[in-house]
Structures are given as structure tokens and as C-alpha cells.
Fold each of these.
Amino acid sequence: MRILVIEDEKKIADNIKKGLEYQSFAVDVSYDGEEGLDFALTEPYDVIVLDLMLPKIDGVEICKTLRAEKVDTPVLMLTAKGQLDDKLEGFDVGADDYMVKPFDFEELVARIRALARRPKERLEEKLTCDGLVLDTTNFTVTVNNSPIELSKKEFALLEYLLRNKGTIVNKDQIIENVWNFDADVLPNTVEVYVNYLRKKIDEPFKKNYIQTVRGFGYKIECN
């Protein structure tokens, strides 16, 4: 999943980013409302973590603008204030959830996962394909019940391919959804990681999960 964190307190923002990346999320961070709104309007995200009090444009205005522009990405609003009026204002402009700082990081992750399962198409927690099972809750992958050890980026790539099984995805789409916005990733990097996956889930089991569609990209086909 790809997350946008808009938070002007750099230490908090960087700690959230570090923690979420440890959970295999791709995370972009913005430290002011103007840049954050630009990211939210132009890049695809599964969840936006949005501080209420921000320089340049505050969280309420950002949320209001996103909903006016028909951006329905779930928004989790953060604030140091706990007053009921602030919560109600956030919900009035389209926020989906609300946490008061300081907060428990494990609860933040749980709420992000819950929000990510809310879109029009509910995100499955277990993704399967002909004996291959990826569990997004426990971060496990098995083929024919045999556990497979994947790096965080390999796991994120496989999850994206499985969520789009039967559909061709090109390298730009993969980079956009699996890597951070500011990551220095070349198309060849995608090829490298696809090959890593093939060596772990295809070759040992004589499978052909990840197919190359020449000139277009990759897809996973299941029977």
C-alpha cells in the first residue's frame, strides 16, 4: 500500500514514515499543507494521514479541497487537540477517522489498514493464486503451504501484482504504487525485483506466476 503523511512536525512525520516502511508500506511525506495537497491531488494513495494544524494550508482545507475534487482516498486526521469541535469539523469536511496526538503507533497502523479496506472494492487480507497465498495481515507468503521469505519490497511488489491479477501492469504503474515518490527507481529496478520474485516463487515450484507481456509489462494469471 502507498501512504501519504502530511505532518509539519518533522520528527513525528519521519517516525511515522520509518515505522510504516517497516510494515512494508510505501510512504511519501510532506511537511506543509501546500505541497501535501499537491501530492494528494496528483499521486495515487491508499490512505492519507493528515495533520490538522499545518503551515500554508491547514488539514481542514486540504480535506475539503480533496472531496470537492472528487478524490475519495480515505483520510486519517491527526491533531494535538482533543476537543469535540475539532473532531466534528474534520468529519464535516470528509475525514474518515481521527486520532489525537500523542498516539500509539500500533493503533495508527491498525486504523490505516482498516481505512484501506474501505474503498469501493474491499481489499482482501489474503490474496491467492494457484497455491500461492499472500497474507497482508501477518506478512507471510506460502506456495503449496511452504513458507517463502521475501524482503519488504518483494512483498509489496507481489501484493500489487496479486491485487491486479489478470491485468497487465507496466513498470511505471509498479514504480508509482510500490515505491515512494522520491525514490530513485529506474525501470530496470522493476525487472530486478521481478526476477528476485521469480527465483523464490516460480523456479523452486516449477510455476509461472509472473508473466512478462513483451512491450507492455507484467501480469499474474491464475486458473
Amino acid sequence: MASFAQTWNADKAHSQLTWNILHMGINNLAGSFQKFSASITSSQDDWSDASVQLTADVRSINTGIDARDNHLKSAAFFDAANDTSLSFKSTSWKHTDGKNYVVTGDLTLHGVTKPVTLNVTFNGKMTDQKGTPHVGFHIAGVIKRTDFNIATNFPASALSDEVNLDANFEFVKG
């Protein structure tokens, strides 16, 4: 395979960084981070040596309900006044089969850094009408909110400990 060391940056207009959590054991509540940046770098065209970096502004959390958004920004959850960002930096990227990969990296959230492992699907590559290459990835996984000292006063019966991460990224070369 030819080496083609390239960095691709998230096309924010066509990317989403979302999550959901089970509320009171009966309903999944979803939200997203509206302000983020992400990049993927690989020197192989099969993505076998890819690395990923992501940052998001926790103050940009959006659930569609202003009162809930403000509650999530409070010290009871993200404490966005004192800790404004989350970040992920990959430490390992492994091909599993077909278009599927597993990425492991360090997630820093609410002042805590922990390793997390996420599932990645390469959705494909295309070139737009202007000649700009694009690639798409779906990334999913589960973290525990209490591992990051988030909402530790809420029992799992009120708010599940597991938070489902679900991101869809379209990256543009360069």
C-alpha cells in the first residue's frame, strides 16, 4: 500500500456528536454537543494506522430543552463554568473486519481522564462536485458517567450510569 499521510478534519455541517442516557429506567434522553472539532490522520489508505483527536465545548450541550441544558451545565453535572471542554485522543486503532475498527483512547471529561474503547465503522469515501474528498465514520460506545464524577448524587434508578455515545463524522481532507 502506498503511504499517503493525510489529516482529515470534521465537516461540522455534516457531523454530529451525540449521546443518550436512560432516565428513571423508562426513557432515553438524547443530547448533543454543538461546538466541537475532530480530526483523523492516517498514512495508510485502509485506515489501519489511523489516529483520532476530538475536543468539544461542554457549554454547547443541547437537549432541546433550555432548562435541562442549564441543569447539565451546572455543578451537579458538567460544571461547565469551571471545566469547559472534553477531549479524546486515540492511543490505538485496530481493524476488526470489513469496514469495522476499534479505537481506544483517553477521554478527558469533567477533569478526569480514563481510557475508553469505541466501535468505528468506515462508511465510505467520495469526492464532491468541487473535487474535495470526503470520508465518513460512525463511532459508538458506552461510558460510565460516575467514572468521570458526573452526577454522582443521582442513583442509577434515576439516571443510568451508562451513557451511550453516538457520533457521525464526515471528514474533509486537508
Amino acid sequence: MKDHEDIIGKKVEVYRNLHKNCFSVRHKGKVIGYLYDIGFGIPAPKLYLTNATFAVQPAGRKKVLREGRKNVHAFVRGTVSYLGGLQKKKIIRRCKRKVTYNPYTMETFRYKNGKQILEAQHVIITKGDVLVG
């Protein structure tokens, strides 16, 4: 992601980009960067959001079910607090609960145990995962 410092403090939407196999980061309707899961032992950038909400647009989900093709209709909205390696940040230890969404089987984002999640104070997006604390 370009200009790392410019993104701090901005409200963004983050969604899984199936075409690029990454997360796309959107600000004011425009994609401003990507978080890639590089793999091969190379850590991918991590995005730390605060005051996040998990949004699923019902009309977009209905279109997925009707057409059998995925589209961008679900994302995490929040304020960017940090971008990069979070190993030294204490917050990474707090964000252990994985969140998932599948338009074919769920109406909302859910924890691994199936419980619905609508908002979270702390969210880390990294290596293909969305983690909350």
C-alpha cells in the first residue's frame, strides 16, 4: 500500500478481492491499496482498524444467491490506526477471534462458533484473516 502514513486516521472499507487474492482497501468509494498474503514465509502487511462495523448489503447478497456469482457487498468499515507489522504492538495479542462471512450460508459476518458480529473495537486484517479483540 502506498503512502502508509497518509492512510492513518482515515475511515476505510476493507473487503476480500477474489480476483487478486487479497484484501482491497477503499476510502470514499475509491480503492487506495491492497493487502496481499504473500506467503512463502514472508509476512503480509497487517491493517489495524478501530471502531469497526461489519456490513453486508442485503441486495448484493441476494444477487449472489440469484446469479451464483460473488460481488462486493460485504466489508469491514473502520478507522485505520496502524499499518504494517504488529508484532511489537500489544493489540495483536488481544485480537484472537476469527471472523468469517460466506454469502451462500450466512446473512451476516460470524465468529467461528457461529455467533453474529456487527461491530468491534479492534480489528486486525492479515494473511487472509479478519481477527477481532
